């Protein structure tokens, strides 16, 4: 309802996604115990460091603070991304806390989220292309029923001249927010000492490369 009320672009609204990323960035700025976040559409996952004592690890306190802060920032930053659109109703989010047993499980969870992002985005890209071409939503769902990933890529290329792999990485892979270790200042000038900079990226979280290059995020190195 919120996306329809504010006329978000389908299947992806770049402004809405960047707003979510800005809110996630604010979360890492506000709560140092958050080590990484991953977002798709209107959902974000936040990973706290393993030995966090954030509000004595009280589940109700953690979830209420995180959800309320994220929601407030969303409203405050709305005009930065939708300067010509007023908020027609207050945004709101829900949340839950899950305690995973080890680092490998967290990596598996984030990889699963990214796989799910690809599956949903590929389907939605096809679906809305069909709808915008004149099909009803029911007809579009029926046309995609039982299709494989290869079938969807073929449909996009042959019917709409769209190469799915050329779609923005933010749409296909979601967004990852973390503290990167850099040797430049905020203006890009080189500095001697390494510093941490909160970064939004669209890297592959399924393979090992990102994690091998950022072992410090989950305390693996």
From TrEMBL:
Purpose of the protein: Adds a GMP to the 5'-end of tRNA(His) after transcription and RNase P cleavage.
Note describing how the cofactor binds: Binds 2 magnesium ions per subunit.
Tagged with keyword Methyltransferase: no
GO BP annotation list: tRNA modification
Domain Thg1 C-terminal, first and last residues per copy: 105-187
Catalytic activity, EC: 2.7.7.79
Main location, first listed in the record: nucleus
Similarity remark: Belongs to the tRNA(His) guanylyltransferase family.
Disulfide bond is among the record's keywords: no
GO function term, MF aspect, one: GTP binding
Keywords: GTP-binding, Magnesium, Metal-binding, Nucleotide-binding, Nucleotidyltransferase, Nucleus, Transferase, tRNA processing
Entry's localization field: Nucleus
UniProt superkingdom: Eukaryota
Single GO cellular component term: nucleoplasm
Annotated ranges, domain tRNAHis guanylyltransferase catalytic: 1-101
Name of this protein: tRNA(His) guanylyltransferase
Binding locations of Mg(2+) 2: 42
Reactions accelerated catalytically: a 5'-end ribonucleotide-tRNA(His) + GTP + ATP + H2O = a 5'-end phospho-guanosine-ribonucleotide-tRNA(His) + AMP + 2 diphosphate + H(+)
Binding site residues for Mg(2+) 1: 42
Cofactor(s) required, per the database record: Mg(2+)
Ligand binding (GTP): 41-42
């Amino acid at each position: 309802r919120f996306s329809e009320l504010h006329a978000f672009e389908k299947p992806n609204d770049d402004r809405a996604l960047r707003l979510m990323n800005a809110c996630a960035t604010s979360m890492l700025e506000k709560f140092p115990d958050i080590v990484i976040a991953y977002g798709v559409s209107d959902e974000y996952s936040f990973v706290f460091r393993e030995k966090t004592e954030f509000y004595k690890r009280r589940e109700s306190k953690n979830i209420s603070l995180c959800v309320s802060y994220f929601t407030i920032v969303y409203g405050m930053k709305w005009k930065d991304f939708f300067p010509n659109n007023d908020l027609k109703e207050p945004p709101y989010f829900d949340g839950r806390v899950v305690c995973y047993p080890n680092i490998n499980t967290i990596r598996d969870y984030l990889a699963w989220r990214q796989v799910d992002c690809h599956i949903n985005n590929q389907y939605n890209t096809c679906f809305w292309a069909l709808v915008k071409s004149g099909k009803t939503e029911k007809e579009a769902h029926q046309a995609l029923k039982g299709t494989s990933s290869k079938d969807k890529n073929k449909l996009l290329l042959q019917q709409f001249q769209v190469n799915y792999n050329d779609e923005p990485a933010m749409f296909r892979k979601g967004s990852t927010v973390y503290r990167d270790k850099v040797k430049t200042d905020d203006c890009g000038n080189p500095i001697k000492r390494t510093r941490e900079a909160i970064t939004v990226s669209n890297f592959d979280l399924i393979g090992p490369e990102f994690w091998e290059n950022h072992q410090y995020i989950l305390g693996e190195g």
